[in-house]
Amino acid sequence: MSINLLDIAKSTLAPVLISKAESLFGMNDSLAGKAIAAILPTLLSGVLSKASTASGAHSLFNAINDHSIDANVGQNFANMLSTPASVSSLGEQGGKLLGMLFGDKASGLGEQVANIAELPGQAKGVGGLLALAAPAIFGLLKNQIIGGKLSQQGFSSLLASQAPILEKSLPAKIAEWLGWGSLASFFGGIGNKLTSGTAEVAKQVVTSGSPTPNNNKSGGFWKWLLPLLAIGLGAFLIKSCGKSDDMPKPPPPPPAPVAAAPAPAPAAPAPAEKFDPVAAATDAKGKYEAALKALEGGKCDADALSKALGLYVINFASASAAIPSADIGELKKAVPALKACTSTGVKIEVAGHTDNQGNPAANQKLSEARANAVKTLFAGSGIPAAALQTKGFGDTQPVGDNKTDAGRFQNRRITYSSAK
Question: CB under 8 Å to 257, separation ≥6 — which residues?
């Protein structure tokens, strides 16, 4: 099944933005809905345009994978808009990302979208929604990169596949105002540009250390969202260290004994490397395939099979229980070993786990749905459904620190166990 980024954005981001538009910008649901219908394809089309050159594709890929971009935005977006401080922070980040995508046009984009969507007097609200939606779009893209284990070239191919979808959704007047020409000319050639642009750049795994571009040409329109926070100034304590000439000088100290040379100070610890989820998933895949190879031969080793299956990382999209197509083939490699065990009466329990981001009740349901998705895949490959049991534990059984990217990555998992 092909990926439709616009549909994902509509289903995960639009409801949250619409629900917040009244309190943030005084826009009712109808006005906000019209604005977002134009905003989402505009942002995604801006991503395609940025990625159509080698340098643009490289900077875009790094910006999306910056540590400040939340790949779990589908689950976390409402929380990200829950306080004035978080709204202000997200709006500032969005202003910079809009500058990266649209350059000098970014500052006037809200007014243009408002005019084209026939929303008179709503330019500031539309601009605010643009600024909040931009980081969320980047988060959805990061989720796709991680879930599909995409290199920069793979990501550009994904973007190229979106051109026919966006051509039907982007208002023609926005494309003209941005200088892209007609929809047909822009989207008709974008696929070749994306392919040729990334051909000059070597394949890259996801990195999370590249700074988000600091483009100061845009972002001014978001500042009206909230009053500036007051900054307290701390006073420095100044020590005086005067000397009195009237004080008698102490006698000179006795000669110090000759001491051995001091031991060298321990070297400063090297800075911790930033977590690379693609590298971690690739490493896990290699261990999984090696463990499966050790099970070849037709004999059942249920414990070893459960451990092997548990090594594989399924990078579900945020808030989704759909197994990515890249993972389906890998999971099916375990079918022969599963058949060897289930044919002897062994039952396999498939358990889903999440990190602690989002609502615990929603995490519980999501973990159950993901476990059932794995069961459905194996049952469709010839494993008796009765031999597969499922459970969902939500975020109640963490194995890593939910305060770190690496820990949350460890906690988002599917585990397996066997029983007669």
Answer: none
